[in-house]
Amino acid sequence: MRQNENTDQLIRKYADMVYRLAFARMGTKYDADEIFQEVFLRYLKKCPEFHDEGHEKAWFLRVTVNCCNKMHMSAWRRHTVELEENLSWETPEDSGLYDALRRLPPKYREVIHLFYYEDMTTEQIAQALHRRSGTVRSQLTRAREMLRELLREENDDETQLSAYDAASKTR
After folding, report:
1. Quick check: 61 and 114 in contact, CB under 8 A?
2. What SS3 state is found at 91?
3. Dihedral over Cα of 155, 151, 104, 26: its sign
4. Max intra-chain CA distance, the chain
5. 10 Å Cβ neighbour count for 104?
6. How far apart are CA 136 and CA 114, in angstroms?
7. Residue 137 clears pLDDT 90, i.e. is over it
8. Worst-scoring range by mean pLDDT, 9-13, 52-56, 85-89, 127-131?
9. Rounded distance between C-alpha atoms, residue 64 and residue 45, angstroms
């Protein structure tokens, strides 16, 4: 019974982190749900022993990334078309940022998520993703530049639409 209590605590501890990373990496609620289940099933099957809390967190991050990679590479996924999800956001800015993040390649979405949403340092990200810290820093820089450009394009589009709407109302 004691093992079940520890397992429940551990799942509660890492559930949000695993789900957010899976969602950031996969881009849909349904895929994130599937990844979430797979990560915790692997934990239950393997029952890994952890040296410390950092090792424990790194294990969950690595397994989440591996499950996402596996899903991206699956034959089934390569032959499907993604459905658009209409999510409601509290503010228009949230929606624009979400759309811009979804348009980033997965490797950039991943480092942005870990850095900003999980508050990890570039060294921690590098260790969790088995990359060099210089690579992670470069990916963060590129991701920020891409986001800036995507958000700028979106603002330009909104400005053009507003000008068009204003012009059509005067007619």
Report:
1. yes
2. coil
3. negative
4. 74
5. 20
6. 11
7. yes
8. 85-89
9. 15
